[in-house]
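Model it.
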Amino acid sequence: MSIFERYVFRQAAGALLLILSSLSGIVWIALALRQLSVVTSQGQDGWTLLKMTTLALPNLMAIIAPFALLIATIHTLNRLNGDSETIVLTASGATVWRVGRPLLVLGFLVAVAVSFVNHIGQPWSLRLLREYLVEVRTDLLSQVIQPGRFSSPEPKLTFHIRERALNGDLLGLVMHDQRDPKLSQSYLAERGVIVKQDPTAYLVMTDGHIVRRSDPAKPPEIIEFKSYAIDLNRFEVKDDEGSDLKPRERYLNELVNPEPTSALYRRLPGQFRSELHERLANPLYPIAFVMIALAAVGQAQSTRQNRVERVVIAFIAAVAARIAGLALNFVVVLNAAATPLLYALPLSAIVLSAVFIRRGARPRGSFGLTDRIMDAFAPVQALLAGFAARFRRPPRHTGAGRA
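Modeled.
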């Protein structure tokens, strides 16, 4: 690249890093507020909250990064035009591609980064997040239950302990489970111990009773036990797939060739298809957004001309393209014939933007939107002006009046 192209690349890359970090920070704060219950109600520390929210962030980077690139590209182009650098280049005979080449290189780098996140970063982070969620669930009873207080890890499930021993054992344990509408169970034990065995954990109770009632018309059943173990997996709301990996948690080869034993794949093959092609089509959007920005605000323009309209059009076109792409994901889940549309949408944006750039046209035409509206209402304005001028004429004086 030439000196000027390296200058443009540095300007755009610096703006991209600043905007991307700002948007990522906003998204991270939103995720942290959603997961704040991990600290407040489930007894976890701040480090656990930090790990869980950070691991959930790569799942959104594929959407955040292209828009950060769009904002950085528009900012760079407006800055070059405001400093008259684009005008000087145009006057010297350079085309818009002189400025567009370093921006397209930056867009290609963002596309590579998005592809890396889609195929490696996102599955790895979501799998690790899944392991942390298991740890949080495992430590739920030992950290949430406080002596002398009734705790409800989930609706219709209540725990109470008299005290906690120095070794962590739960003394005077009472557990009431009404999650099954047909069966109500109460567990009373002198001592409870949490025993971890991968991939789950158990609550082992000793010297207690189980009060069970399945029919309100019948007396409850009382069962005495010396030792009784409960799987802690029962204390979380599970989906039908159990430990089956979701499409977003799978690597590329696992999406292309899912295991035959996957119940989720047999039940929802469209989600696997949609996730696979969405990952492959996502890297096209950074390049498409750069082309849209070049078509909208890449041309040299006088500082007296208003560029706000062009910026708005660029944002609307980019947001509309991305929303349409997300909507097509749901269509691909239902109908495999719509899969080519996932690739056709960003490619069409690239081709149309290139046509506008080559013709030296603007996405909105040679006049601004306000000017076009005023031109459309020009006959009405002339008619109203004629009526106003007619009523403003002074009355004529007759001879009798002068006498």
